[in-house]
Amino acid sequence: MWSLEHISDPNAAEIHEVVKKAIDKPEDYVLKPQREGGGNNLYDEKIREVLTQWDKKDVAQFLIMEKIRAPKIKHYMLRAGKAEYLDTITEYGIFSNVLVRNKGEG
Hints:
Layout: E1 2-3, H1 13-24, E2 29-33, E3 42-43, H2 45-53, H3 56-59, E4 62-66, E5 73-79, E6 82-88
Antiparallel strand pairs: 1-4, 2-3, 2-4, 5-6
């Protein structure tokens, strides 16, 4: 994740390289505003528009990060009371499920 705070600095080579990559392949990046509350992230072609057309002072208020491409894994999901074995992806987190069939054995 990179702050675009110094996007106007000609010596900020790493930031300029990331911006160039994001303009070339915006589908691989996310622009996130640096403010509380989440949401308002920008994706895909909107990234190219912001990086190429907006004033650099406005762009400097964003962070840019590479999209996380979580691998798909097969897992059981409960939908409408039925367990379905589906392709799923996960975000970082720890979750657990326990299915128990009680046959009256204490």
